[in-house]
Amino acid sequence: MRNSTPAFPVGFADPDGAAGPVTIRQGVAWGELDALGHVNHTVYLRWFENARFAWFERVGIAALMRERGGAVGPILARVSCDYRIPVGFPDAILTSVRCVELGRSSLTLRNSVWSEQHQAVVAEGEVVGVMFDYAAKRSTPISEAVRAAIHTLDGAAMHA
């Protein structure tokens, strides 16, 4: 797995600017296939998660979680995925993530998954996360330092 600036190949169709500033490459594992011979639908959410945590590292959310011993961190409120093309084995995929909306305590991240085998986008989705205080069991505002890092990384793509 690697983290880099936009690494979608030349010719990647990106009409909505989905190729975000954090992109990771992941190989498709044989065990991720279902009985029909394509990647099981739940695996795409894991790919989103892997890219999301690389993004958390870039904007300081992962450091905040470590500093606070896991007492404060994101929690998922919603996940959606639009599957475009079935992915098989062997293949490698690039998963890109960017923040498209930033609220007081919530953020919306957009993912795009590109297949090396298909040379195309195979899935797109969104994740809504909420910064959460696990001790108080309630949402908490996103810190100014994290907000600034998000604006620096993804500012041009955001709606808020």
UniProtKB/TrEMBL annotation:
Supply the EC number(s). 3.1.2.28
Q: Which domain of life is it from?
A: Bacteria
**Keyword set for this entry?**
Hydrolase
Family annotation (Pfam families) = 4HBT_2
Query: Which InterPro entries is this protein grouped with?
Result: 4-hydroxybenzoyl-CoA_TE (IPR050563), HotDog_dom_sf (IPR029069)
Gene Ontology molecular function: any one: fatty acyl-CoA hydrolase activity
Transmembrane stretches in the record are none
Name of this protein: 1,4-dihydroxy-2-naphthoyl-CoA hydrolase
The organism encoding this protein is Enhygromyxa salina
